């Protein structure tokens, strides 16, 4: 049994269904009154029907399950939606070319200034210490910025933070690199273990292809409604250790 099948079986514990009523008598009466059945549907039609049912079930699971489980359920369609980040795993991505544009209205800020510019707490990983640079981006009409970024190692290691309860903020194309589940502090997290295209999703829900760039290995997790995205030349174990040191 592969990981997806095992996880889908576990999902059954989340769904509560009432005991079915005894409808034997009603079914027998209806069958007696019905005309003879039409010929059996062809095999291709039955396959199409099964695919439609599977897609509908995936959509239902995404709607009713907690975020982590919903992400797993949506994997049926080749997408993982987790904590404000959408990850495509269905096909090999095409690496972006050229220089990516920065996030909308991105600007540098001191750490305390950045904290005042966003509506969520900015936490610093104790394993890395104070950031070398801090950026804030995408302000709304009241000046509240959507994303805060802490930069380390000359910008090669970055920690993005944003409110994960909002609409998707980043779109990743994992493709052959794949995405796997891990944990940070006992909570679900996703690890994308190799280079992959990443784009910004604006407030209208449009993927901004001009912002696309080739991201390094990335760890994604959520804590207290804030999504964190740690990207750099790290092993999964190192990334999890850094993530667990947020203060």
**First CA to last CA: what distance?**
39 Å
* Structure summary, number of beta strands: 13
- Following the backbone from N to C, one meets helices and strands in this order, namely HHHHEEEHEEEEEEEEEEH
- Give the strand order, joined by hyphens, for the main sheet: 3-4-5-6-13-12-9-8
Strand content: 25-35%
Low-confidence stretches: 51-76
Indicate the structural class.
alpha+beta
Query: Can you give the helix content as a percent range?
Result: 25-40%
Count the DSSP helices: 6
Main pleated sheet: 8 strands, antiparallel
Shape: elongated
Cα-based radius of gyration, to the nearest Å: 23 Å
Q: Average the pLDDT over all residues and give the rounded result.
A: 80
Short description:
By secondary structure, the chain is an alpha+beta fold. It has helices at residues 3-11, 24-33, 43-64, 67-73, 111-117, 236-243; strands at residues 79-82, 85-88, 107-108, 133-139, 145-152, 157-163, 170-173, 180-184, 187-192, 196-201, 207-215, 218-223, 226-231.
């Amino acid at each position: 049994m592969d990981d997806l099948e095992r996880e889908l079986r576990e999902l059954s514990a989340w769904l509560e269904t009432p005991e079915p009523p005894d409808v034997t008598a009603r079914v027998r009466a209806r069958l007696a009154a019905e005309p003879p059945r039409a010929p059996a549907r062809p095999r291709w039609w039955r396959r199409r029907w099964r695919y439609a049912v599977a897609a509908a079930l995936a959509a239902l699971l995404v709607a009713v399950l907690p975020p982590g489980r919903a992400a797993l359920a949506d994997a049926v369609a080749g997408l993982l939606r987790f904590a404000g980040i959408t990850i495509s795993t269905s096909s090999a991505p095409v690496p972006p070319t050229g220089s990516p544009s920065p996030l909308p209205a991105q600007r540098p800020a001191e750490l305390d200034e950045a904290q005042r510019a966003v509506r969520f707490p900015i936490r610093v990983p104790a394993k890395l210490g104070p950031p070398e640079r801090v950026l804030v981006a995408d302000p709304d009409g009241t000046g509240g910025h959507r994303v805060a970024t802490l930069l380390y190692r000359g910008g090669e290691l970055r920690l993005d933070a944003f409110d994960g309860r909002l609409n998707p903020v980043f779109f990743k194309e994992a493709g052959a690199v794949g995405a796997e589940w891990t944990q940070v502090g006992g909570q679900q997290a996703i690890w994308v273990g190799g280079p992959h295209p990443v784009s910004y999703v604006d407030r209208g829900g449009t993927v901004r292809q001009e912002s696309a760039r080739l991201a390094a290995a990335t760890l994604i997790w959520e804590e207290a409604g804030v999504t964190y995205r740690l990207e750099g030349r790290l092993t999964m174990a190192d990334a999890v250790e850094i993530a667990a040191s947020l203060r």
